[in-house]
Amino acid sequence: MHKKLILLLTLLAAIVCGGTTTTLLADEASAAKVQKLIDAADAARKEAASVGGEWRDTGKMIKKAKKLLKKGDYTAAAKLANDAAKQGHLGYEQAMSQKDLKMPSYLHY
């Protein structure tokens, strides 16, 4: 009786620990992927800033994505990082398309 109970508990512990390890590995992989998205968004933001095209909320979105990543909300963090990257690319394109635009002096800041 005791041998069966010990065997059953050992088997149950192996299943639980194996599942936990798999979950931890999946979380680490997800976190690494989201971190790459955040890094790409920050690079796009910096590129836009280098030509004066950084949009107002891009940096805020990246900060929030980092917080969500820390909390383990990978889906929301990835979405926000992707949106921030789009803003970075669009800000760069906008600045480059308007660099030769002749603006009156009162519109310059």
Distinctive features:
109 residues; mainly alpha; rod-shaped
Write a structural description.
The termini are far apart. This protein is 80% helix and 0% strand. The protein has a domain of 72 residues. It is rod-shaped and about 90 Å long.
Sheet-strand content, in percent, reads under 5%
Return the string of H and E elements: HHH
Span of the ends, CA to CA: 83 Å
Rg (CA only)? 24 Å
Number of strands: 0
Which structural class is indicated by helix and strand composition?
mainly alpha
The shape, in one word, is rod-shaped
Q: Helix fraction?
A: over 70%
- Which residues sit in consecutive blocks of at least 5 with pLDDT less than 50? none
The largest sheet, given as strand count, sense and whether it forms a barrel, is: none
Average pLDDT, to the nearest integer?
Answer: 84
Number of DSSP helical runs? 3
In terms of quaternary structure, the protein is: single chain
Brief characterization of the structure:
The chain has a domain at 28-99. The protein is built from 3 helices and no strands. The protein has helices spanning 2-50, 58-71, 74-97.
